[in-house]
Amino acid sequence: MKKIKMKNQFIFFGIVFLILLSLWSPSLMNPSYLDNDVQKYALLSENIINSGTYSLLGKFHALYPPGHSLLAIPFILAFGKVLGFKILSFFWSFIFLTLSFYLIYDKKEPLKAYILVLLLLLNHIFVYNSMMGGSDIVFSAFFIFCLFSFKLAQKNKLFYVLTGIFLGLACLVRYAGVALFLIFGIYVLLDNYKKLFKKEFILMNLTAIFIICLWLFRNFLVFGNPFHTKYLSVHKALITAPSLGPLNSFFFYINPIHSIMPILFLFMIYGIIKTFKKNKLFLISILVYVSLYICWGINPRARHLLPLFPILLFFAIEGFKQLLIQYKKIKILITILFIIGVLMSAGMILIYSYGETNYIIDKFSNIIPKNLGLSSEQHYSIAQNIDYINRFNPKDSFIVLDELRKNLWYKEGVFRKDIILINNNQTNICSNNCYSIEKACKDDYLFRTDSEPKHCVKKLR
After folding, report:
1. 71 and 150 share a domain?
2. What pTM was computed for the model?
3. Which of 44, 181, 229, 363 counts the most CB atoms within 10 A of its CB?
């Protein structure tokens, strides 16, 4: 029986791999499709490789923790910066799906885990982040790994050490990993407060703290202060000034469009109401993690909620199940409603995740605004400008870019081999055939996109 189950899971994950590959592969057609932060991560990784320093543009870096840049190194060495970060996203997306499956897998009700993975594959925010090379999908995988390991630790104490290791690594990828300390602490406090003083729980926390201290020690050696970071200064206006920041964040994060879409969100609410007592760890994870980002005060982003998606969808599945049990007479209607919710989520992929399909919808529909402010829209506009330059620019022409983007695209096959990339401070070397890609050009441009937000190719001289 076990062999049959393992075989079924193996076949299932083979299918999942192929579906994820088909959703991810369109990003290969446009090398420019990468998260904006990847420009910095790429340079940080490159400096680690070349000089052994964690630095950006000649200065030691303290804003981003080093986890993502370190994990990207083997991918950069094997595939280059652009393709390397894309493959890194694919790799960690598959790990995220696999861990999500086993996080909620129950031998008595295995179907829930299978449905969960399929729902994740049809989620617009997950699909987008699976292509973009950012740290969000990597952090999400570590977050789920911590929860999964902690669940196993309730039966086998050896897993507390493993939980501590991945908790420390999660914090080195994103500072938001500190939420896991609170999640596990509150869970143990409510479940059996005496466990707070058990050696295995203390060892878990010490292991995580030791890993984090490696980063703090580096900051002490470089800056003379273990807690030196520019993170607070970057977000100073949002964090220190009295404003509606937390309130805006609250309404942003409870908006189901930024997570699992409205209908599935309603199923999730019902699932929480009916099953929260036996899923305390999951409920605490939602409340603590969302509260952290609300109180943090930084600009809200849908990708911040990505680590919680498996939990939110798990509760949606539970809500669906409970409704079928409680209202048997209308189970067909409930099922249809759930399917509509899934289709809404899948349809959102065309609007949110892919700039190409977003533009097609814009052309034939006036229902939604032409410019939704989505990163995928901007990536598509920039990609069209790159395509124009590669097709029509004269040989040995110059393209002016900012330093970070120039570093990311240099010798990465984004432009023709004869095109020379220079940064904003080097424009004096191009006396002729000097071009730039700019946003919202009103006139004097060679090419401008029809898609929003409009970007254009402009000849500087």
Report:
1. yes
2. 0.94
3. 44
Task: Say yes or no: 380 and 346 in one domain.
Answer: no
DSSP state string for 190-243: HHHGGGGGSHHHHHHHHHHHHHHHHHHHHHHHHHS-TT--SHHHHTHHHHHS-S
Whether residue 27 is found in the same domain as residue 112: yes
* Mean pLDDT, residues 395-415: 84
Nearest CA among 304, 303, 311, 263 for reference residue 286 = 311
Query: Which band of pLDDT confidence, cut at 50, 70 and 90, is reported for residue 413?
Result: confident
Percent of the chain with pLDDT over 70: 95
Helix (DSSP H) and strand (DSSP E) numbers for the chain = 20, 7
Residue appearing with tokens 């330093």: 403
Domain region containing 90:
2-352
Express each pLDDT in 223-249 by its tens digit: 888 887 766 665 554 454 445 568 888
The residue among 88, 98, 95, 36 whose CA lies nearest residue 67 is 88
Phi, psi of 419 (to 5 degrees): -75, 135
Burial 28-51 (b: 16+ CB within 10 A, else e): eebbbbbbebbbbbbbbbbbbeee
Q: Answer whether residue 223 is part of any domain.
A: yes
What's the distance, CA 108 to chain centroid?
Answer: 32
Report the pLDDT value the prediction gives residue 443, as an integer from 0 to 100: 77
Count of domains for the chain? 2
* Assigned token pair, 359: 């533009």
Say how many C-beta atoms besides its own lie within 10 A of residue 95's C-beta. 17
Residue 289 lies in a domain: yes
User: 345 and 379: one domain?
Assistant: no
Is residue 332 located within the same domain as residue 380?
A: no
Name the β-bridge partners of 420: 398
Instruction: Tell which residue, 294, 307, 358, has the closest CA to residue 147.
Output: 307
Selection from 319, 284, 291 nearest residue 305 by Cα: 291
Q: Which contacts qualify for 71-77: CB closer than 8 Å, 24 or more apart?
A: 71/138, 71/173, 72/41, 72/42, 72/45, 73/45, 73/48, 73/49, 76/42, 76/45, 76/46, 76/49, 77/49
Segment 401-425 mean pLDDT: 83
Confidence (pLDDT) at 240: 41
pLDDT digits (tens, 9 = 90+) for 322-343: 999 999 999 999 999 999 999 9
335 in a structural domain: yes
Residues 293 and 229 in one domain: yes
